[in-house]
Design brief:
Length: about 100
């Protein structure tokens, strides 16, 4: 299950960074939003790689996952406010992936 989340989030970041952000970065009025989003991607990636190497019975596992959840939800909310349909789609997909699954499997 964690693998699924990992793949989903990594794919989301790749698509946005390769296709969506370069377009918005060129425009003065959206450049700042892109920079903020990129920073959030980086934070999410850091947490993901921490979880990836952490043994599932580590007591920090759940707190790190909660931190990741908060960051992703915040990020998704912000992107849903954006007018780009592509961003809306990928965010909705992440939201659908759900957080109630047994992630340690
Ligand atoms: Fe994103």
């Amino acid at each position: 299950m964690f693998k699924e989340l990992y793949t989903e989030l990594t794919l989301h970041a790749e698509v946005e960074e390769d296709i969506v952000y370069p377009f918005f970065e060129e425009k003065q009025e959206t450049r700042e939003i892109v920079e903020e989003s990129l920073q959030e991607h980086e934070e999410i990636e850091t947490l993901l790689s921490e979880l990836k190497v952490m043994p599932p019975d580590d007591e920090e596992w759940m707190s790190t996952l909660s931190e990741l959840k908060e960051k992703v939800e915040h990020h998704v909310e912000e992107e849903e406010e954006s007018s780009s349909p592509q961003r809306g789609r990928s965010s909705a997909k992440i939201r659908r992936s759900g957080w109630e699954r047994p992630w340690k499997q």
